[in-house]
């Protein structure tokens, strides 16, 4: 699911730090705003917007971090509102609900671990592409070259 590849150039120390910080921003937001999935996305979006004029390496990794947070928001929002419907409405806990919550929790754990790993590798200047998000990031983020 994660692929390490060579970037078109070797990023400098400052670039590697900023790219790594894009992932760390989402981790801090997850810890601070765990019950509110929108907080994670807003923190990552703010960092993304703040680095739009940065180098390609930084912009690319900010884009990948933002895309992963966007899908996490969608998955967690469905689980959140489904749970609210069960608590406050006439919904009942079904096998489909339990299966969805298990998959959502597993996805969150995987994304958390992948984010930590990517932040560490990116800080070393190593380019890490996530399955699906990496290709989207390449399509969205235009190269300086």
Mean pLDDT level: 83
In DSSP terms (H or I, runs of 4 or more residues), the helix count works out at 5
Q: Could you tell me the number of beta strands?
A: 2
Helix content: over 70%
Q: Domain count, please report it.
A: 1
| Broad shape | elongated
SS content category: mainly alpha
Largest sheet: 2 strands, antiparallel
List keywords for this structure.
two-stranded antiparallel ribbon; 6% strand; 72% helix; 5 helices; mainly alpha; elongated; 145 residues
General description of the model:
The chain is mostly helical and 145 residues long. It has one domain (2-140). It has 5 helices and 2 strands; from the N terminus they run βααααβα. The protein has helices spanning 13-32, 37-50, 56-88, 95-123, 133-140; strands at residues 2-5, 127-130. The protein has a two-stranded antiparallel sheet. The two termini are 27 Å apart. The model has no long low-confidence stretch (mean pLDDT 83).
Chart the SSEs and their pairings.
Blueprint: E1 2-5, H1 13-32, H2 37-50, H3 56-88, H4 95-123, E2 127-130, H5 133-140
Antiparallel strand pairs: 1-2
